[in-house]
Amino acid sequence: MKGEQVKGAGIVSESIVTFEDAVDWALSVMRDVMIRKQRDYGSGNISAFGEFGVLVRASDKVHRLKNLLEKAEKGQVPQNEPLFDSWLDLANYGLIGMLLQSGLWGLPMEEELSCETGS
Questions:
Q1: Nearest-CA neighbor of 41 among 111, 116, 102, 106?
Q2: In-domain check, residue 111
Q3: Which member of 13, 60, 89, 110 has the lowest number of beta carbons within 10 Å of its beta carbon?
Q4: Does any domain span residue 115?
Q5: 106: nearest Cα among 63, 43, 24, 60
């Protein structure tokens, strides 16, 4: 997979040669998407329903993945959401759940802090 195109993921770096490199790459992708979506959505949509809301979203994603994988076995290609994106969203729901459990969900974004301090 090293240096090859991954559906939905772009180019995987030639420097990925170990499992640890692959984990670092995946976490970097997760981080970038999580931060972009947090900028767009804010924390209120998750805070309103807490862990149960995240569980429902994750359950929806699992069922969507199951459906997409069953279709892929029949040779059908997803038209609206690549499998990679579904897996990425599910992983990020797990991260959101961890942040909720740790009491860290809802912290301000760095740019919000810099605006408050005038930096």
A1: 106
A2: no
A3: 110
A4: no
A5: 43
Domain region containing 53:
5-105
User: Strands (DSSP E) along the chain, which ranges?
Assistant: 5-6, 10-11
Cα dihedral sign for 54, 62, 94, 44?
Answer: negative
Does residue 118 form part of some domain? no
Buried b / exposed e over 64-83, threshold 16 CB at 10 Å, is bbeebeeeeeeeeebeeebb
SS3 89: helix
Residues β-bridged to residue 6: 10
- What would the pLDDT profile of 17-51 be if each residue is shown by its tens digit? 999 999 999 999 999 999 999 999 999 999 999 99
Entry pTM: 0.84
